[in-house]
């Protein structure tokens, strides 16, 4: 079976640390193109991974015979570039958040359906083993009825992660559209939907910029969510956790409590009302720590979905539903009101 030809559009940190090395280590694909408006950055990745280097993605789409495309660009470019790639005949893996509006997200889904090409959104937290095990425990009734949760994601900000540091596009509204809520909050919106296995109906939020100077996006947000079955909880996203990254989720149920990525030794701790306690060693969660090497599972899952012609775990509609929570949080903050969510893109 011949390998799938893949190109990566955008050669910043997410490409350098996740997409390119994971495609490189997947025996099913061959990297044939890399693209970045910064020519030296594209050529640096070409020197490591091969293929052709481009500075214009449309030229690359027209020039190469591509099966797969990864879109690793500023948020405002996710939708238009993904749709161009889909329309060129490629299957697309797009970084999160998938779009900057419901209309953009719906257009991406329509392009995927019309072309018959896979659209996957790179929500990597669904592939973390502690998160998968927590979902299984909830589904099997281990903690009984779920009542509440708190989930959060925070670190010191993208200046320590982005290739452009303090000058990163992450801080500019015209490029990023949204700050910590798009960078981190959408991860947790997707994760809590996945773990609980249900949708949210109500969102209330305060979204603020109170930690960093000279930025035009949010850096701190706290949301209150209510699910269709009545589960209530909080979701926080922050670029102001300057000492340690926090990526914890806690689920409170009738028969027990699940603590995910909340203990330094155990990735999942289950404590039950009968006094039992189970500590799970399931490996490290994906983080931005320098030098950490791992496979997120995202790339391998995307390739497998295309190879086997099956829907990926996070298709366009799933990405839309998680984005919708973040958009509702922005609306709630702007209006000072609780926002009711619709059911989906269609």
TrEMBL record:
<dbReference type="Pfam" id="PF01408">
    <property type="entry name" value="GFO_IDH_MocA"/>
</dbReference>
<protein>
    <submittedName>
        <fullName>Putative dehydrogenase</fullName>
    </submittedName>
</protein>
<feature type="domain" description="GFO/IDH/MocA-like oxidoreductase">
    <location>
        <begin position="131"/>
        <end position="258"/>
    </location>
</feature>
<dbReference type="InterPro" id="IPR055170">
    <property type="entry name" value="GFO_IDH_MocA-like_dom"/>
</dbReference>
<dbReference type="InterPro" id="IPR036291">
    <property type="entry name" value="NAD(P)-bd_dom_sf"/>
</dbReference>
<dbReference type="GO" id="GO:0000166">
    <property type="term" value="F:nucleotide binding"/>
</dbReference>
<dbReference type="Pfam" id="PF22725">
    <property type="entry name" value="GFO_IDH_MocA_C3"/>
</dbReference>
<dbReference type="InterPro" id="IPR000683">
    <property type="entry name" value="Gfo/Idh/MocA-like_OxRdtase_N"/>
</dbReference>
<dbReference type="InterPro" id="IPR051450">
    <property type="entry name" value="Gfo/Idh/MocA_Oxidoreductases"/>
</dbReference>
<feature type="domain" description="Gfo/Idh/MocA-like oxidoreductase N-terminal">
    <location>
        <begin position="4"/>
        <end position="123"/>
    </location>
</feature>
């Amino acid at each position: 079976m011949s390998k799938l030809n893949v190109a990566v559009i955008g050669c910043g940190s997410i490409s350098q640390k996740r997409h390119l090395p994971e495609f490189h280590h997947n025996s099913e694909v061959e990297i044939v193109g890399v693209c970045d408006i910064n020519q030296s950055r594209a050529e640096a990745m070409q020197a490591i991974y091969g293929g052709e280097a481009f500075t214009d993605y449309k030229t690359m789409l027209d020039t190469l015979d591509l099966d797969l495309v990864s879109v690793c660009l500023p948020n405002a470019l996710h939708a238009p570039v993904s749709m161009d790639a889909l329309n060129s005949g490629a299957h697309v893996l797009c970084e999160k958040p998938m779009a900057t509006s419901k209309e953009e997200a719906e257009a991406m889904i329509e392009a995927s359906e019309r072309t018959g090409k896979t659209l996957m959104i790179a929500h990597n937290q669904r592939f973390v083993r502690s998160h998968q095990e927590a979902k299984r425990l909830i589904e099997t009734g281990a903690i009984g009825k779920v009542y509440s949760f708190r989930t959060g994601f925070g670190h010191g900000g993208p200046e320590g992660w982005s290739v452009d540091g303090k000058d990163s596009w992450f801080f500019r509204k015209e490029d990023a559209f949204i700050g910590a809520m798009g960078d981190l909050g959408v991860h947790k919106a997707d994760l809590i939907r996945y773990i609980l296995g249900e949708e949210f109906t109500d969102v209330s939020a305060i979204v603020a910029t109170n930690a960093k100077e000279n930025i035009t996006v949010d850096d701190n947000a706290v949301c209150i969510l209510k699910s269709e079955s009545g589960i209530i909880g909080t979701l926080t996203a922050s670029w102001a956790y300057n000492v340690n990254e926090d990526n914890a989720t806690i689920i409170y149920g009738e028969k027990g409590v699940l603590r995910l990525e909340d203990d330094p030794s155990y990735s999942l701790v289950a404590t039950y009302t009968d006094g039992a306690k189970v500590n799970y060693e399931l490996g490290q969660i994906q983080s931005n720590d320098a030098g950490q090497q791992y496979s997120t599972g995202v790339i391998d899952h995307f390739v497998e979905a295309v190879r086997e012609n099956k829907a990926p775990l996070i298709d366009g509609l799933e990405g839309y539903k998680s984005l919708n929570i973040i958009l509702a949080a922005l609306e709630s903050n702007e209006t000072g009101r609780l926002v009711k969510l619709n059911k989906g893109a269609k």
